[in-house]
Amino acid sequence: MGEDYLSTLNLLDKLLNINKEDSLVLCYYGEILYNMTQYRKSISYFTKAYTIDPENIHNLNRRAITYCVIKEYDKVLSDLDKIIQLDPLNSSAYYLKSLTYYTKNDSNNAKISFKKYAELLNSDNILAKIQLLHLEYLLNKNSSKDLNDILTKIDQIHYSSINEKVFLRFIKCKIYIELKEYSKARLILDCTPYYDGFESMSYFIQDHPDFWSYLYKVCEINKNDFTKFGIVDEFSKYMYRKREVYFVSNLTNLNSELCQFQESDISSLSGLVLSSKNEKLHLVLPILNFIYTYDYFICKMNVKKILSKDCFIKFTLNGNYRDYMLKHEDVSKLEGLGWIEYQTSIRDLHYDGQFSIEIEINSIEMQIEYIRLSYSSQPIITHFTNISSMGYLFPVYHKFFSNVPETFKDKYFSRKEMENLLDLKDILN
Prior knowledge:
Blueprint: H1 5-18, H2 23-35, H3 39-52, H4 57-69, H5 73-86, H6 91-103, H7 107-120, H8 126-139, H9 144-156, H10 162-178, H11 182-191, H12 198-206, H13 209-218, H14 234-243, E1 245-247, E2 262-264, E3 272-275, E4 281-284, E5 296-306, E6 313-317, E7 322-326, H15 328-332, E8 339-345, E9 355-359, E10 364-374, E11 381-383, H16 406-411, H17 415-419, H18 425-428
Helix pairs in contact: 1-2, 2-3, 3-4, 4-5, 5-6, 6-7, 6-8, 7-8, 8-9, 8-10, 9-10, 10-11
């Protein structure tokens, strides 16, 4: 979703100037900062909202999740206990509590909270059932019998949306890997397109070297020559060959001058990114022989700071034939969002087209991790949570929790407006 976070924050600031103790606006402010991966700053706003309205369960829930991301687990449990005191039937609090205890290696308390969550579960809520199955998988990873029972339960669920289908396949894939039924896990991977949980699955694969070795062998990765692409490590070869993702750090193996732009980033899939720093960055990618003809060019990048109003990011396709330039007004909408995928239309590009990316000197402090192509449209801006910091949270956990406090609906806005990051201009005017 391509939210204009900075504009929304500016508008929320105007509301806070009217009433700086409006707990609902403070809570929503924290939501936006969380989405921008400014976790500690978001906690400060959730805490301000809590001080004003200590019975706002939604606010406590969001602060607990944020504490979970920054690994302050005792504070997570403290907030969840507050929620349960206010609402003893709050099932999501018990889910997060079980997950937190599991993360702390406290299996007894994890199972106690799991049982309570199962008791409170609404049988008609498919997404809640999926959460339950994911948690059940975590608590029974060492029991092949229990894992097979979970597979049976998954097959009995009648999903009604693509998202639900993908979530269930994600859990099945992880279970097959635990059971060492690698051919079944691979089949799921091969049939699953790029989606919200993709990065989490990629991290998971890397953490299971036996499965990784199997994939590398059975996909016959080494039968391909990657020299002209600068790809040398096995993971990058797999991602290019099977997922059609090209890490721009591979370019340092083709042009040693680019090594000065390379830096480590633990939140990235490959662990390496290229950073514009204070130099002009001009990346000329090799001709990427992807299998299909695609309509969209997607770049994963992190615009940290704009240094000049003369800044630009230029995507050039097929030499000088055509280019797409993001100028200051466009780049300013990306600043501070953290890692995002930015999509550009390339409907007339053939499968063997060549790309280049150019960033003007001393204009933008930003990082680039990879590029990929797509034949289906997605939002122009897709935000990425830092998967490496998520621990055992379900990779698309945000879909299981409302992003909007119920009390917002009557106070200012309709739910539809809020879910789409409403335009507050109408309210302020």
